[in-house]
């Protein structure tokens, strides 16, 4: 699985770019190829999608944009092409505001998005957007993400979930971990594993 490609943009085409990294040219489908500059180096965040008969790389300028793409893909009725069309505009403030406020009329303006799908986007994503790394200062109706007092602990709790422990199990040990002397992420993960055993 790819996270990003760091390389030279060698081709700009209407629907894709080519990123040359390590002597290999990767064809990457992007919402707006002309947001990139040809013959300039760039970091392109990648989402790899495997289908029965094809393997496609989708590219984004920021990790936040990639995460928003992943959220859109989780909505029933939205495939990669529809999600990319929604993200083609580099300013996502209007999109996020529409989802938060339930503005279906704004969402149906995107290609391939009907009223039913727009309603599903609102239903599925309305409460999940605050977790994404965007500046929400200009968006009304969304609770501002609180700055964590202990990012290392937060990362450790997410790592424990990624290791297969359920959210309820992790929540039960979080207070015990928080009561420990401040550790780094690896220290919290290790202490958490001991509490589970």
From TrEMBL:
Gene Ontology annotations of biological process type: DNA recombination; DNA repair
GO MF terms, alphabetically ordered: ATP binding; four-way junction DNA binding; four-way junction helicase activity; hydrolase activity
Gene3D superfamilies tied to this protein: 5' to 3' exonuclease, C-terminal subdomain (1.10.150.20), Nucleic acid-binding proteins (2.40.50.140)
Location of region: Domain III: 148-197
Main function: The RuvA-RuvB-RuvC complex processes Holliday junction (HJ) DNA during genetic recombination and DNA repair, while the RuvA-RuvB complex plays an important role in the rescue of blocked DNA replication forks via replication fork reversal (RFR). RuvA specifically binds to HJ cruciform DNA, conferring on it an open structure. The RuvB hexamer acts as an ATP-dependent pump, pulling dsDNA into and through the RuvAB complex. HJ branch migration allows RuvC to scan DNA until it finds its consensus sequence, where it cleaves and resolves the cruciform DNA.
Stated family: Belongs to the RuvA family.
Compartments, record wording: Cytoplasm
GO CC annotations, alphabetized: cytoplasm; Holliday junction helicase complex; Holliday junction resolvase complex
Keywords: Cytoplasm, DNA damage, DNA recombination, DNA repair, DNA-binding, Hydrolase
Comment, domains: Has three domains with a flexible linker between the domains II and III and assumes an 'L' shape. Domain III is highly mobile and contacts RuvB.
Domain Helix-hairpin-helix DNA-binding motif class: 70-89, 105-124
Matching InterPro entries: DNA_helicase_Holl-junc_RuvA_I (IPR013849), Hlx-hairpin-Hlx_DNA-bd_motif (IPR003583), NA-bd_OB-fold (IPR012340), RuvA (IPR000085), RuvA_2-like (IPR010994), RuvA_C (IPR011114), RuvA_C_sf (IPR036267)
Subunit text: Homotetramer. Forms an RuvA(8)-RuvB(12)-Holliday junction (HJ) complex. HJ DNA is sandwiched between 2 RuvA tetramers; dsDNA enters through RuvA and exits via RuvB. An RuvB hexamer assembles on each DNA strand where it exits the tetramer. Each RuvB hexamer is contacted by two RuvA subunits (via domain III) on 2 adjacent RuvB subunits; this complex drives branch migration. In the full resolvosome a probable DNA-RuvA(4)-RuvB(12)-RuvC(2) complex forms which resolves the HJ.
Organism (species): Weissella koreensis
Protein name per UniProt: Holliday junction branch migration complex subunit RuvA
Region (Domain II): 62-139
């Amino acid at each position: 699985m790819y996270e990003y490609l760091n390389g030279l943009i060698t081709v700009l085409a209407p629907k894709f770019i080519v990123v040359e990294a390590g002597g290999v040219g990767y064809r990457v489908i992007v919402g707006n190829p002309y947001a990139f500059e040809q013959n300039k180096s760039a970091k392109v965040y990648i989402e790899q999608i495997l289908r029965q008969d094809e393997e496609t790389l989708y590219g984004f300028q920021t990790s936040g944009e990639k995460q928003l793409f992943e959220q859109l893909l989780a909505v029933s009725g939205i495939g990669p092409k529809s999600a990319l069309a929604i993200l083609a505009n580099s300013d996502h403030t209007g999109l996020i505001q529409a989802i938060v406020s339930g503005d279906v009329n704004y969402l149906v303006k995107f290609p391939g998005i009907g009223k039913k799908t727009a309603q599903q986007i609102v239903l599925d994503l309305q409460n999940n957007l605050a977790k994404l790394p965007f500046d929400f200062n200009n968006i009304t109706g969304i609770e501002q993400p609180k700055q964590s007092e202990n990012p290392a602990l937060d990362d450790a709790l997410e790592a424990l979930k990624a290791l297969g422990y359920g959210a309820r199990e992790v929540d039960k040990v979080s207070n015990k971990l928080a009561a420990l002397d401040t550790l780094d992420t690896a220290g919290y993960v290790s202490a958490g594993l001991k509490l589970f055993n």
